[in-house]
Amino acid sequence: MKNMIVIFTLLLSSMNVFSATEGPLNKGMINPGFYEKPTWFKDSFLELQADLNDANDQGRKIILYFHQDGCPYCKKLLDDNFTRKDIVSKMSQKFDLLEINMWGDKTVTSLTGEELAEKEFAKKMKIMFTPTLIVLDDKGNEQFRMNGYYAPDKFSAALDYVLLKSEKDISFNDFYHQQQNKSQAESKLHTEAIIYKGNDLRRLIKNSNKAVIILFEQGDCLECDELHGDIFRRLPVYKKLQQFSVTQININSDKVIITPDGQSMTEKQLAESVNIQYTPSIFFYDKQDKNSEKRLVFRSEGYLKGFHIQALFDYISSKAYLSEPEFQRFVQQRADKMRKEGVKVELWE
Fold first, then answer.
1. pTM of the predicted model as reported, rounded to 2 decimal places
2. Do the domains at 48-170 and 195-340 have one common CATH topology?
3. pLDDT in tens, 235-281
4. What angle do CA 315, 221, 191 make, to 5 degrees?
5. Residue 290 in 3-state DSSP?
6. Helix H or strand E segment including 67
């Protein structure tokens, strides 16, 4: 009996060591930060062609849901979005949702028949944020992608957008903007004293001695309100922001600018050309070494709170992206280091 207890204890310890997670080990939990999935998720062997065939036969769509244990944004998706009746109704009636742990080892058989561990499949699909949800069309092609957490109203609108196949006629941003309750958010674009107000982005990127941030934003955007009215007002964040040259694009504006690659077009046209679906989106331009020109090195296109915004700024300013291409792994390493130094880590701050 004692031997069995020892073996069981060692097994639990090994699971704790090798489970990838953003959050600390909660009391009484074997899998750090594990969140129970809703019962209407599809039970799948992750053989994607078989799942796609089943969905097509039933007139449904496949959603690939990439998550990780301890992810506060995943928990918010489960607690806030996946408990709302209108969203649950659409999801359970029209979609088959397949969950994939971005650090997991279960086998995924891709649409081409390639067998990959979940973590390798996530890397192949260029997953940088959790949650990420990818909607597939009936051929298995990516129809729509939600990078990061979408608030319930925006999430519900995204489901309507793909069900109506509206991507053929209108951008998601315009589709959502038409449905949004504008009285909830500031109608004007926020600004900061450090934001570059000129029209020539190419010159800014070329001449700045700092890495460059382009903020893609719009009025009537609650998440933009939070970014400027709260997160950028926090002293640690503001200090990190000053390490960059910052400019701003109004994705609905007809103002003519010079784009980073030297073209003349409106701000709205630039946003459409780089497929902005979420505001605020943050683009980072940096040079890999002192002799190279700056280039786009990272796109942040999802909802982030203060801890992750600071991590994002560190990721670029320290050039950690050169040695660690997976932002989520950098976030974990940064959080672990802070905990070892005795700093309390609040992921949802």
1. 0.82
2. yes
3. 999 999 999 999 999 999 999 999 999 999 999 999 999 999 999 99
4. 65
5. coil
6. strand 61-67
Phi then psi dihedrals of residue 268, to 5 deg = -65, -40
E strand or H helix at 269: helix 267-273
Q: Name the residue among 20, 129, 124 with its Cα closest to residue 65.
A: 129
Give the CATH superfamily of 48-170.
Glutaredoxin (3.40.30.10)
pLDDT of residue 123: 95
Residue partners of 210: CB distance under 8 A and separation at least 6 = 243, 244, 245
CATH classification number, 195-340, choose in 1.10.3720.10, 3.40.50.720, 3.40.50.620, 3.40.30.10 = 3.40.30.10
User: What pairs with residue 249 in β-bridges?
Assistant: 216
Residue 31 is encoded by which pair of tokens?
A: 């899998």
Any idea which residue has 């009391």 for tokens?
27
Count Cα neighbours of 237 within 13 Å in the Cβ-side half-sphere.
Answer: 17
Whether 335 and 315 have beta carbons less than 8 Å apart is answered as no
Residue listed under structure tokens 């990190």: 240
Please tell me the distance from the alpha carbon of residue 162 to that of residue 277, in angstroms, as a whole number. 13
Question: What is the per-residue pLDDT across 65-101, written as a single tens digit (0 to 9) for each?
Answer: 999 998 999 999 999 999 999 999 999 999 999 999 9
Would you state the pLDDT for residue 14?
38
Question: Are β-strands 256-258 and 281-286 bridged in parallel, bridged antiparallel, or unpaired?
Answer: unpaired
pLDDT above 80 for 24? no
User: Structural domain boundaries of the chain?
Assistant: 48-170, 195-340
pLDDT of residue 37: 81
